[in-house]
Amino acid sequence: MMAGVMNKILQIRNIALVFVLAPQLAWAQVAITEIMYDPAGVDSGHEWIEVYNEGTSSIPLSSWKIFEGDANHNIVAASSDSLFAPDTYAVIAQNAIKFQTDYPNFAGELFHSAFALDNGGATLTLRDKSLTDIDAVTYDSSWGGLGDGNSLQRSPGDQGNFVPRTPTPGGPIAAAMVAPKLKPTVPGNTAKPKQSTSLKTTSVSASTANVRSTNDAGNMAVVTSQTAAVAMPGIDSYWFFALAAVILLAVAAIAGAQHFKKSEWDIIEESPEDV
Fold first, then answer.
1. Which of 66, 99, 223, 226 has the fewest CB within 10 Å, making it most exposed?
2. Would the CA dihedral through 167, 168, 173, 177 be positive or negative?
3. 51-71: per-residue pLDDT in tens?
4. What is the rounded CA–CA span in Å between residue 159 and residue 155?
């Protein structure tokens, strides 16, 4: 008799536990699936988080919280339905109006919350109305998505790791990521081979103006159209001209001296006739 009563009590307790724990078990299947923490361009008002309801019951997401930056942030419904239906995605945007401008084709369930996602990395925790942690993600900028247009998305085939992909708010993970943008080429900034500007001699034409051209070696040359170019002497050549000038002066001095002596001799020869 007593054994039968105890069995009934245990059955009633188990049934009660099922009813009490069933919502928690369903809510525990809600997961953070996508994070746009550093959108291309201005961050403020353009950050958002995507969540997915893997359970079988609708969830009053408006009574839940996003814990970030040591604060529990309220989640407010921005669409007509505040319930989070099963087997669907929902987006919790930093600013619902700006989000709809950024993604005009989005037609899923939209909520907004006053969080601010750190570009270097942070921990995001999804909490139910009793502030029980349902899911948490600690992301890092080294994962990707740092201002390059990609979001971080949970990969179902990679043990739940997050990877950078083309943003798909309200949809499954994208197959590819946004290609990195190439740096624009500045006109006139193309590297050119250096040209030698040191010339031992400078060619000077006796008549027409010089025309500059570039030879096969990349050096600047001076081309004349008529007369042959005459090479200007270097510094060492001036010693030759100085020596030649000294010799010419010496020869001239000797010649002048001889002429002076000859004139004096002529005067002496004529003096006896005068006597």
1. 226
2. negative
3. 999 989 999 999 999 999 999
4. 7
Distance CA 21, CA 118 (A): 35
Structural domain contains residue 266:
no
Q: Is residue 229 part of a domain?
A: yes
Q: Report yes or no on 227 lying in a domain.
A: yes
Distance from C-alpha of 176 to C-alpha of 151, rounded to nearest angstrom? 11
User: Buried b vs exposed e over 46-72: b needs ≥16 C-beta within 10 Å?
Assistant: bbbbbbbbebeeebebeebbbbbeeee
pLDDT category of residue 4 using cuts at 50, 70 and 90: low
For 213, the domain range is 202-234
Question: d(Cα 15, Cα 51) in Å, to the nearest integer?
Answer: 30
Q: Which residue has the higher pLDDT, 115 or 23?
A: 115
50 in helix, strand or coil?
strand
β-bridge partners, 60: 83
Number of independent structural domains in the chain = 2
User: Is position 53 within any domain?
Assistant: yes
- Helix and strand numbers (H, E) in the chain are 3, 17
Angstrom distance (rounded) from CA 19 to CA 130: 17
pLDDT tens sequence across 140-185: 999 999 999 999 999 876 567 899 999 999 998 887 787 655 444 4
Q: How many CB atoms lie within 10 A of CB 17?
A: 10
Residues 85 and 141 both lie in one domain: yes
Q: Which amino acid is at 154?
A: R
Please report, for residues 101, 106, 198, 213, 244, the alpha-carbon distance to residue 222 in angstroms, rounded to integers and kept in the order given: 64, 69, 13, 7, 31
| CA–CA separation, 98 and 52 (whole Å) | 22
